[in-house]
């Protein structure tokens, strides 16, 4: 069956909302639009995917795409669109905060006016952030100002997660997408080879009643990373830049640990360097797992396995680190510079190996 519209709903722990959302969509969209809804679930612990699969027995235009070992709203939205054959795509949240009643108006606008993109905006005439906390409103407005530095068009709400786009626009630009974090709209517009023809429609954001909100600081962090990637990502891979940043923090951890051990214990430099390197490797793994490889984040027993695979992958780097540092010290180089050079050489090896072994 030919479809006019696929509604893509990325979910994580939204089990209590999915049925209500489906019912609201049926009320809002009339039979003139041939549509489906695709829930793209990141293997929710609350069993969201199972709930959607059960509901799909009653509604034949409800689908579930379950992802295992992958996370992130942007990448979920991209995979949902790639799995669809519809002429247009709608991206919206599963928390019931987006106003589904404006979907027909958005579809009419993008279809009749031959547009690439229609954005539901909280910050254009008649729009509202509802009961959204004032600090989150300020963050959204600040993000808008930042986005204008890299976008080819000026959206009033580039942080919006509620928008519609044409298949043609998506397919022309999908290969350039970063798929980082939560802000897929910014990614799409910043990646566009040609500025999209667009329109904005105001909507009033509702209050979340069920489910799990995204951690605001994580959203901000990944938004900033996306801006950075769109600015210089073609020159230096973003993940490498993040790994280097974590590695720099590890160098300070290592130097600090060596200093403490040499000044508060009777251990030799070789032992102090070895202990400090292990401490730095552990903190580096934790930070990389939390930030650099957030989309492949290891949890539970996988975290423990990942930690030991990280140790294994870095074992050669550790050996080079310690041996080189000791050699430099024996050659008359001051202790902190010996330790620093060893850490840098070890870090180069660590990035290359852990990329393919720990977070493959």
- Summarize the amount of helix as a percent range: 40-55%
SS strand fraction: 5-15%
Question: How many beta-strand segments?
Answer: 7
Which sheet architecture does the biggest sheet show? 7 strands, mixed
What would you call the quaternary organization?
single chain
User: Can you tell me the number of structural domains?
Assistant: 2
Number of helices: 13
What is the straight-line distance between the termini?
38 Å
CATH architectural label of the largest domain: Alpha-Beta Complex
Strands of the widest sheet, in order across it, are: 3-2-1-4-6-5-7
Task: Identify low-pLDDT runs.
Answer: none
Q: What is the CATH H-level superfamily of the largest domain?
A: Spore Coat Polysaccharide Biosynthesis Protein SpsA, Chain A
The CATH topology of the largest domain comes to Spore Coat Polysaccharide Biosynthesis Protein SpsA, Chain A
Computed over alpha carbons, the radius of gyration is: 24 Å
Shape: elongated
Structural class: alpha/beta
Mean residue pLDDT:
86
CATH C-level category of the largest domain: Alpha Beta
H and E string: EHEHEHEHEHEHHEHHHHHH
Describe the model.
The chain has 13 helices and seven strands. With 360 residues, it is of the alpha/beta class. It folds into two domains: 5-232, Spore Coat Polysaccharide Biosynthesis Protein SpsA, Chain A (Alpha-Beta Complex); 238-357, no CATH class. A seven-stranded mixed beta sheet has the order 3-2-1-4-6-5-7, sandwiched between helices. The longest helix is centred in the last third of the chain and has 27 residues, at 238-264.
